[in-house]
Amino acid sequence: MKDRPIGVFDSGVGGLTVVKQLMKEMPNEDIVYFGDTARVPYGTKSASTIRKFSIENVLFLLNFDVKLVIIACNTSSAIGLPFLGKYFSVPIIGVIKPGARAAVRSTNNGRIGVIGTRATITSGAYENEVRSINPKVRVFSRSCPLFVPLAEEGWANDGIAGAAAKKYLTGLKQTGIDTVILGCTHYPLLRKAISGALGKGVELVDSAEETAKEASELLEECGMKNRGKKAGSAKFYVSDAPEKFLEVARKFLGREVKKAEQVKDV
Question: Which domains does the chain have, with CATH numbers?
């Protein structure tokens, strides 16, 4: 049981930031990652379609006898997670609850900002989760759609990223927030630009980092954590041509990814 891998899926490549944090948090664990690059983005799809894709992604990961599934996609976490728990016995966690919990712990003035894609912000998933934890907390949301292509193009530290962050976040900063949830798995790559636009008094909560911590705690509680000394391995699968994925993976993981296998039928 302990030697079984952790399964991670995303609609594309952003979930690699979760993989990076998992490798840091649990270096002995094997990981199987599936990026549904042929059907990205999920944010434009209907709820029924997102649930269908999410089920197919979990079924694919179960082929590897995974002991835990992590939904490294905000859209699937918001729409698919409540649904998936009814149909699968394997533990499944998403990225929204860990980020929301960390933000509530972090805030001192009860004013939290959330930044993400339009689909995530429109869903209100983070806002609902934060308020379920503490109804007194005020949540201010802002969609930042350009951040995703900037991260994938490797322009996270470019002046363009700084200009975009300032344009998007100036109004959010003026609300008096002291904590901001990075509500998209691409956004940790733009941490420097985001922090620069918000100023030193605002704490950034990385949902990817918090999700990795929650995964570690869950495996510990279930007695499924791999305590071996051997370094874990990572296998990558995508539903479209892997060339672009491999290029972006290097930027997201900060290491070389030599192989990603294309899966034609999920």
Answer: 6-94+209-262 (3.40.50.1860), 96-207 (3.40.50.1860)
